Amino acid sequence: MTNDVITETNKMHMSTDKIVEQSDLYSQKGGTVRTPDQNPLPVRVTARDVKVFYGQKQALYDVSIDIPERSVTAFIGPSGCGKSTFLRCLNRMNDTIEGCRVEGQIKLDGGDIYDPQLDVVELRARVGMVFQKPNPFPKSIFENVAYGPRIHGLAKNKTDLEEIVVSSLQKASLYEEVKDRLHEAGTGLSGGQQQRLCIARAIAVSPEVILMDEPCSALDPIATAKIEELIDELRQNFTIVIVTHSMQQAARVSQRTAFFHLGVLVEEGPTDVIFTSPGEKRTQDYITGRFG
Ligand SMILES: Nc1ncnc2c1ncn2[C@@H]1O[C@H](COP(=O)(O)OP(=O)(O)OP(=O)(O)O)[C@@H](O)[C@H]1O
Ligand SMILES: [Mg+2]
């Protein structure tokens, strides 16, 4: 799509009466091809010109994106294109990797998350993460979920803590399966249950954003379907970013999709646009399985 077409799309979009403040991204020249939403939701996270280096090697080049609240944004692209690297920028998990350097700006609700004054532990409670491989702590199911609220002082007393644990397990669609064995080891659950336990653990500290890096890749189709259903429910209350290698999954669960290639954000827009009429040949080639 050319910039002219983007401008046209924008004009159409501007003519509707329900307008959320227009993102500066759509007036930017060159770089990423962008298609705005017809009814845009308020933006929760903004990234501008994000570059990431591992030592001398640059892994991401000037990534700029807005992530709207209460929706699912999918990151897709071939292996090694930088999806996980960018996801980790959003809660400063790259800080934990030696030799990794992040440049540019990322804001959560208008506040700079790379501000040196910022408490990173608190940031990671606001921006939770679920990993590819379920990684429950070697503790009971109850303790896995209670851990975060306890260290962040979110419960006034024992009853309060129990309520948080139960409601988090319910929101993660796991409670009915584990209510009679809350004090058994979390690692004794099936893979799909462990992943829902990790989602319950992330939810327990009331995050604003949940990052998921290929959360279903270790799961069978039934467990995957459950997690996808859960993601769809969670978006009513949370802002979700998911990395996936499955085009079907991106199409099923996300409202916006961002396509990365060789460290560059090639294109982003509403998921149906990306999958039916992408503006870039590289996006088209990837989604039709021509490379990757
Ligand atoms: N800890 C690290 N140290 C050095 N280089 C890294 C590190 N992590 C990632 N990279 C490099 O950064 C680039 C992007 O990697 P990243 O893991 O973000 O890709 P990805 O899109 O998530 O890939 P995949 O789909 O295989 O998970 C790759 O070239 C990779 O080799
Ligand atoms: Mg990855």
Automatic annotation (TrEMBL):
Q: GO CC annotations?
A: membrane
> Which SUPFAM superfamilies is this protein grouped with?
P-loop containing nucleoside triphosphate hydrolases
Q: Does the keyword Magnesium apply?
A: no
Spell out the InterPro entries in the cross-references: AAA+_ATPase, ABC_transporter-like_ATP-bd, ABC_transporter-like_CS, P-loop_NTPase, PstB-like
Q: Name one Pfam family in it.
A: ABC_tran
Record's signal peptide:
none
Q: Which UniProt keywords apply?
A: ATP-binding, Nucleotide-binding, Phosphate transport, Transport
SMART domains for the chain: AAA
- The answer to whether UniProt assigns keyword ATP-binding to this entry is yes
Q: State the PROSITE patterns in the record.
A: ABC_TRANSPORTER_1, ABC_TRANSPORTER_2
ABC transporter domain location is 45-287
Entry's Gene3D superfamilies? Answer: P-loop containing nucleotide triphosphate hydrolases (3.40.50.300)
What are the recorded Gene Ontology BP terms? phosphate ion transmembrane transport
Superkingdom: Bacteria
Q: Name one GO molecular function term.
A: ATP binding
Q: Which family does it belong to?
A: Belongs to the ABC transporter superfamily.
Q: Which PANTHER family match?
A: ABC TRANSPORTER I FAMILY MEMBER 17
Name of this protein:
Phosphate import ATP-binding protein PstB
